[in-house]
């Protein structure tokens, strides 16, 4: 709740500064010098050194910082235990409270809670960065439901909506938690879980489920602080004065008014979910009065007053408490009295996340200036009254007041009336992502009939959301007999649309879309209300559903200790779950360390006239400034050196790094960086899109590619039975790795440097730092323990952080840490490339595609980076799984003024698959054939030759396809879908089946190499170093498994510590799904070499490993070996003809979706996936990769949309505006099967790469949505031939439904 008093002047009063008291993990902490600008996450990580809670977004949108807040409420005389986001919670607001972090529910590496055990054993972690937050959200849910025997899946999904995961696809997390029982003494007894051998990769831990005793101990600690440490009735409030502001915590209304009258510029804060958006903005200049502890503002009361019956809710109640209070009324009162309450509760289920609802307050939601507020929208229609105190006069007003409320007032209570028998209430919202997303448009309506329920007396409507200025329309028909019919709806619609046209805001959404959406919401309202009046309410979605299956075969004849083929958990799974796993920013602060914050361009294309850091350098704690003047070589690049470390004379993208402020700590550096003054002169033209580049002929001329194969004649297409032309656009995607970019550089003697980098490419970081500073690579050691996701985004763009940090460390001769916040990371880092195509196709009447001619434009961005690889991969993957006889492609890389785009999981492959699948889908629609029939007709078979000349061997795409047809029951379900669509007018279901056929290897042949170093120590323990980076894909785990087979020893004797350039030099980046292929073979060779050396010392089978090692040592045998592998027989010539790939990974997916044709929103009902992984090294990890990649593709093709301003600024810079899939985005039923009986002679132990190929299978979601649209268009007499670009957002879907023939 935020209200700005209009008067001026500050009087802090005579009240003494309070000592801050908080309990953390059972320990009482008193801090006499707390700074009000500190967030909880800053305090627990930087001051208490509890690194388990992570910072992934800084805006309460991802859940990685989730902790359990326990406090005592004086109004209800109860203790509460709730999940909150530590990154947006002001530390001052937690006086006298208890915080439980992930460290508090386990005991180091000795024991863990059963929730942590469950997520680890069920393979619910990959990169592990989100895992502590997931665990704490589930722990908090369990604390709330401590007396329930089993939790419903809907309840679990709701609890996890605010926790994002980019790796797993959520299925294993749901499976881990759905069997958890809060009051079970040992919920670790799940017999059907796969990973019962995980103990062989980590030390055994005891499992505890002592939650009830933990919560009781917390409550006992808090008993002395029932009223924030102050006895009830005591009039002393709390005050915390810092360097920049003062915070007041009153405990009753009189105290609050006294403070406000004495501090006229004070701001009122309730849940403060919008106060701290990230650490950079935590400077709060004006006094703050926190009102959420005021007893009078936390009351709940059912009232009767002057013929009004209502529920009175204190303005300091959280949204969760509001929903609980309304639910009690629903359960206790007659249905007709709680229609409004039921609608509100349903709407609140879509409001934010559990963590946000546990913090945001009623008063704050009413007072916010956010146009998307759902609460303000229903407030307008329900005849709500508000209690308001005018600050200064202290006069109380209780009345119905229109929004927005005036500044200088304090809302104390909200009155929500009970509904009457003749009142019908409806509410809804439309979002890009159904859960945990701001409303594009929200709506609320209250319709009042006469007593006979025949005629309408009154209708009140309100619309709000991102796209409109909130408005309401009131219809009164007291003297007229107006029936509730279609004529009534038409009249209302006409009036509302006329008002809408005056209330549209300038946003990313088109006027046509918002107009159509408004009309459709009115139709939804009409259908719902008429059905309810008739006693036949429309059914609500059943969200209490989740099914999954994972099918694979185990090798039951494996040798003892041989873990190859076994579904063991990730080697660091327990460390992930307990928060012990260390990432770059978890490294403890180094003595004398500095922090580097960037000065970035706020122009996309401009000359840099001057840069003045004077004001920043004057800030206490600032050490200095770095710029292009401090660099030996200021240019870098992956193919050509066309990018600057620090912009020197001009900037070519918004967010480009100009310089950096180096300071004693993070907050000082980030604040001071904002004080650097930069003067610009704009340059024209400004080119942001592919269309802009085409108009200005702005290309990278040497980096395009052509690919042509003409088996018939050049005019084959024109001679075909059918010829079609068209365009298609495929949008880009942010990597959204959970761990932002980061680097720590430690300078040493003789220009040596230790670099701890969050990178997929240690070799390139080493090499480019050396070039920038003119230091040989042998002085620079780059180390990586693990990274919290990468997906290609940390292959080259990690240099944006590593190079400036190295320059600063070199200049000031002190360790330098540079960690980006999410918003800056998204602004300056590269994204997946966008593509625009013009194509022409020719095909037979049976659907056989005979010719494809296409021009493909790619937005490379301001510098080339690795865009050459993206355009190359699109062209070579445009065949996907299909034999296209005549193939004529032209790929062009566009040069624009956006941050340089880069490689991303699949690098062009997913976009290519979407394009060719769209062409076959269009052929099927044109011929009125089932797309499955057309796809199968065109599919590759053994011995076919690709357009680039590679002959297919061991081709299993048709096997995967046929297996998927069978397992998904495609044909019977197609009949069921058709029947459903005949019976439903406005909701349609679609079904699509799509293959993938993805080549594995680097087309740059020199990258197809890997190395490893294996040491055996005298005690028999083994240390493996290899060139690959653990990103979450389970690379270390698989290589441990390789070593168990080759060495014949248990995994507990084998350890992989980190990746380091001083152990394995010149390592290929960990990307392109090649990690296991390259480094697995290298480890295998090294182990085989060692076993050959040890063979003479094995006298008999019973000899222990330790005795053999000891004997070899005493015989002076080297117990260290290197392994090296290069992929054989790959490559192509200068005309791009040859065999660039080692083999192909193939698969097929069948997806069924349901589409709301009024809003464009969809849900995925079921997906069946069959994937050929050869002979899996680890089925659990491989299935995790399949599911995670598939979910990644769901985001790419449906919800993830990057939006730029006209000036080139990226507007979608965090989870509150950029929407990756959540736990509610995945299929309600997900079945994954590994193709049985497959092998692969071209990779280690006949396995296949799996990291990228399954992402292509998410095309099945896109084309299932398109199937729904086509069905609906046909039912309304429209053409089945229409354009749908990616991503298929609700806007694009609704516009495709509206699209004319």
Structural class: alpha+beta
Number of helices: 32
Strand content bin: 15-25%
Q: So what's the overall shape?
A: globular
Strand order of the largest sheet: 25-29-23-36-33-34-35-44
- The N- and C-terminal alpha carbons lie at a distance of 50 Å
Residue-averaged pLDDT, rounded? 92
Helix content: 25-40%
Q: Number of DSSP strands?
A: 50
Radius of gyration: 31 Å
Largest sheet: 8 strands, mixed
Q: Spans with pLDDT under 50 lasting ≥5 residues?
A: 1-14, 185-200, 227-233, 277-283
SSE map:
Elements: E1 20-24, E2 27-31, H1 40-47, E3 66-73, E4 78-85, E5 98-100, E6 111-113, H2 114-121, H3 131-144, H4 153-160, H5 171-178, E7 206-208, H6 211-222, E8 238-241, E9 246-249, H7 253-262, E10 267-269, E11 288-290, E12 300-305, E13 308-314, H8 319-332, H9 339-348, H10 354-357, H11 362-367, H12 374-381, E14 385-390, E15 395-399, E16 409-417, E17 423-430, E18 441-449, E19 455-464, E20 471-476, E21 482-483, H13 486-500, H14 511-533, E22 547-551, H15 573-578, E23 594-600, E24 606-612, H16 614-617, E25 622-626, E26 635-636, E27 643-644, E28 650-651, E29 657-663, H17 666-673, E30 677-682, H18 690-695, E31 705-710, E32 722-730, E33 742-747, E34 753-757, H19 762-773, E35 780-784, H20 799-812, E36 816-819, H21 822-828, E37 835-843, E38 849-861, H22 867-877, E39 886-895, H23 909-927, H24 931-938, H25 957-968, H26 970-983, E40 987-1000, E41 1009-1016, E42 1022-1026, H27 1035-1047, E43 1054-1056, E44 1059-1060, H28 1075-1094, H29 1105-1114, E45 1120-1126, E46 1131-1132, E47 1138-1139, E48 1143-1156, E49 1162-1171, H30 1179-1199, E50 1229-1234, ...
Parallel strand pairs: 1-5, 6-7, 9-11, 10-11, 22-50, 23-36, 34-35, 38-39, 42-43, 49-50
Antiparallel strand pairs: 1-2, 3-4, 3-5, 8-9, 12-13, 13-16, 14-15, 14-16, 17-18, 18-19, 19-20, 19-21, 23-29, 24-28, 24-30, 25-29, 26-27, 31-39, 32-37, 33-34, 33-36, 35-44, 37-38, 40-48, 41-42, 41-45, 46-47, 48-49
Helix pairs in contact: 2-5, 3-4, 8-9, 13-14, 14-32, 19-20, 22-23, 23-24, 23-31, 27-28, 31-32
């Amino acid at each position: 709740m935020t209200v700005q008093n209009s008067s001026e002047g500050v009087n802090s009063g005579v009240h003494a500064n309070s000592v801050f008291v908080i309990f953390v993990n059972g320990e009482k902490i008193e801090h006499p010098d707390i700074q009000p600008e500190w967030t909880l996450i800053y305090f627990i990580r930087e001051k208490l050194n509890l690194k388990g809670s992570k910072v992934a977004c800084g805006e309460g949108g991802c859940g990685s910082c989730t902790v359990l807040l326990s406090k005592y409420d004086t109004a209800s005389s109860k203790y509460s235990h709730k999940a909150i986001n530590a990154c947006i919670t002001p530390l001052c607001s937690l006086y006298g409270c208890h915080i439980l972090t992930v460290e508090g529910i386990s005991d180091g590496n000795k024991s863990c809670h059963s929730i942590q055990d469950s997520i680890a054993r069920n393979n619910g972690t990959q990169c592990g960065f989100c895992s502590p937050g997931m665990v704490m959200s589930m722990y908090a849910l369990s604390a709330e439901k401590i007396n329930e025997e089993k939790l419903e899946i809907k309840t679990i999904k709701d609890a996890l909506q605010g926790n994002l995961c980019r790796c797993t696809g959520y299925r294993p997390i749901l499976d881990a938690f759905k069997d958890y029982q809060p009051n079970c003494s040992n919920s670790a007894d799940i017999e059907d879980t796969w990973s019962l051998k995980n103990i062989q990769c980590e030390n055994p831990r005891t499992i505890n489920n002592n939650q009830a005793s933990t919560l009781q101990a917390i409550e006992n600690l808090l008993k002395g602080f029932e009223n924030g440490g102050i006895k009830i009735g005591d009039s002393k409030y709390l005050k915390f004065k810092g360097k920049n502001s003062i915070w007041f915590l009153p405990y009753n209304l009189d105290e609050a008014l006294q403070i406000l009258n004495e501090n006229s510029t004070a701001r009122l804060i309730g849940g403060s979910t919008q106060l701290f958006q990230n650490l950079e903005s935590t400077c709060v200049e004006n006094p703050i009065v926190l009102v959420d502890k005021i007893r009078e503002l936390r009351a709940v009361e059912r009232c009767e007053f002057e013929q009004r019956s209502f529920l009175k809710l204190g303005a300091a109640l959280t949204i969760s408490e509001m929903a609980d209070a309304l639910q009690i009324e629903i359960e206790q009162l007659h249905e007709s009295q709680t229609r409004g309450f039921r609608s509100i509760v349903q709407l609140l289920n879509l409001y934010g996340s559990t963590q946000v609802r546990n913090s945001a307050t009623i008063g704050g939601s009413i007072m916010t200036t956010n146009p998307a507020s759902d609460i303000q929208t229903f407030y307008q229609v329900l005849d709500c009254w508000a209690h308001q105190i005018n600050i200064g006069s202290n006069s109380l007003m209780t009345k119905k007041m229109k929004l927005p409320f005036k500044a200088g007032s304090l809302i104390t209570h909200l009155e929500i009336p009970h509904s009457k028998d003749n009142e019908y209430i409806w509410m809804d919202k439309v979002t890009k992502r159904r859960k945990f997303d701001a409303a594009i448009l929200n709506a609320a309506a209250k319709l009042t009939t006469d007593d006979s329920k025949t005629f309408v007396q009154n209708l009140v409507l309100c619309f709000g959301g991102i796209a409109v200025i909130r408005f309401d329309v009131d219809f009164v028909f007291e003297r007229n007999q107006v029936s509730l019919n279609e004529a009534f709806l038409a009249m209302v619609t006409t009036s509302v649309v006329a008002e809408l046209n005056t209330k549209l805001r300038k946003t990313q959404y088109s006027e046509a879309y918002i107009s159509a959406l408004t009309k459709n919401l009115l139709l939804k309202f009409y259908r719902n209300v008429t059905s309810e009046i008739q006693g036949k309410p429309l059914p609500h979605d059943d969200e209490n559903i989740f099914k999954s299956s994972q099918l694979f075969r185990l090798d039951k004849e494996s040798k003892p200790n041989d873990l190859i083929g076994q579904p063991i958990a990730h080697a660091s799974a327990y460390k992930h779950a307990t928060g012990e796993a260390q990432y770059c920013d978890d490294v403890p602060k180094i003595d004398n360390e500095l922090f580097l914050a960037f000065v970035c361009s706020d122009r996309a294309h401009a000359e840099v006239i001057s840069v003045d850091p004077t004001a920043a350098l004057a800030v206490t704690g600032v050490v200095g400034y770095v710029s292009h003047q401090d660099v030996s070589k200021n240019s870098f690049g992956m193919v050509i050196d066309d990018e600057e470390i620090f912009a020197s004379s001009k900037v070519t993208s918004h967010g480009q790094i100009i310089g950096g402020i180096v300071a004693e700590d993070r907050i000082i550096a980030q604040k001071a960086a904002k004080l650097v003054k930069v003067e610009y002169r704009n340059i024209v033209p400004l080119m942001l899109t592919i269309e802009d580049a085409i108009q200005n002929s702005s290309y990278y001329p040497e980096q395009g590619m052509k690919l042509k194969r003409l088996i018939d004649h050049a005019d084959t297409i024109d001679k075909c039975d059918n010829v079609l032309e068209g365009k298609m656009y495929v949008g880009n995607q942010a990597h959204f790795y959970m761990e932002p970019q980061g680097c720590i550089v430690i300078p040493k003697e003789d220009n040596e440097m230790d670099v701890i980098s969050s990178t997929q490419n240690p070799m390139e970081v080493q090499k480019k730092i050396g070039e920038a500073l003119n230091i040989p690579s042998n002085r620079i050691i780059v180390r990586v323990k693990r990274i919290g996701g990468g997906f290609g985004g940390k292959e080259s763009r990690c240099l944006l952080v590593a190079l400036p940090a190295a320059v600063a460390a070199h200049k000031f001769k002190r360790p330098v840490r540079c960690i980006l916040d999410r918003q800056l990371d998204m602004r300056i880092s590269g994204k997946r490339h966008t593509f625009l195509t013009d194509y022409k196709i020719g095909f037979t009447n049976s659907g056989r595609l005979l010719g494809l001619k296409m021009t493909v434009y790619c937005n490379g961005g301001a510098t080339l980076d690795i865009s050459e690889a993206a355009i190359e991969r699109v062209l070579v993957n445009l065949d996907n799984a299909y034999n296209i006889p005549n193939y004529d492609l032209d790929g062009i890389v566009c040069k624009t003024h956006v941050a340089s785009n880069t490689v991303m999981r699949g690098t062009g492959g997913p976009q290519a698959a979407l394009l060719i699948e769209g062409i076959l889908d269009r052929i099927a629609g044109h011929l009125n054939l089932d797309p499955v029939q057309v796809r199968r007709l065109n599919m590759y078979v053994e011995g076919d030759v690709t357009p680039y000349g590679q002959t297919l061997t061991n081709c299993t795409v048709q096997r995967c396809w046929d297996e998927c047809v069978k397992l998904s029951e495609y044909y019977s379900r197609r009949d069921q879908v058709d029947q459903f669509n005949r019976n439903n007018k406005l909701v349609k279901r679609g079904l699509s089946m799509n293959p993938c056929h993805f080549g594995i290897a680097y087309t740059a042949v020199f990258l197809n190499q890997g190395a490893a170093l294996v040491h055996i120590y005298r005690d028999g323990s083994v240390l493996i170093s290899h060139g690959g980076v653990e990103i979450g894909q389970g690379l270390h785990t698989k290589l441990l498994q390789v070593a168990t087979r080759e060495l014949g020893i248990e995994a507990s004797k084998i350890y992989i510590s980190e990746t380091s350039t001083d152990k394995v030099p010149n390592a290929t980046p960990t990307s392109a799904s090649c990690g296991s292929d390259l480094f697995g073979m290298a480890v295998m060779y090294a182990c085989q070499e060692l076993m050959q050396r040890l063979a003479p010392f094995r006298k008999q089978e019973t000899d222990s490993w330790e005795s053999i090692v000891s004997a070899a040592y005493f015989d002076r045998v080297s117990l260290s070996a290197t392994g090296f592998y290069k992929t054989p027989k790959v490559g192509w010539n200068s005309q791009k003809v040859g065999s660039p790939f080692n083999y192909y990974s193939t698969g097929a997916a069948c997806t069924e979706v349901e589409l709301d044709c009024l809003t464009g929103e969809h849900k995925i009902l079921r997906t069946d996936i069959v994937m050929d992984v050869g002979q899996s090294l680890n089925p659990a990890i491989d299935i995790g990769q399949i599911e995670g990649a598939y979910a990644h593709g769901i985001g790419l093709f449906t919800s993830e949309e990057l939006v730029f301003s006209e000036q080139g600024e990226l507007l979608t810079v965090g989870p509150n505006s950029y929407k990756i899939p959540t736990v509610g985005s995945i299929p309600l039923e997900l079945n994954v099967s590994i193709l049985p009986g497959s092998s692969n002679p071209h990779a280690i132990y006949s396995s296949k790469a799996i990291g990228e190929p399954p992402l292509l299978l998410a095309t099945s979601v896109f084309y299932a949505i398109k199937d729904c649209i086509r069905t609906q268009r046909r039912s309304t007499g429209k053409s089945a031939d229409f354009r749908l670009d990616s991503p298929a957002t609700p806007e694009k879907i609704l516009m495709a439904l509206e699209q004319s023939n």
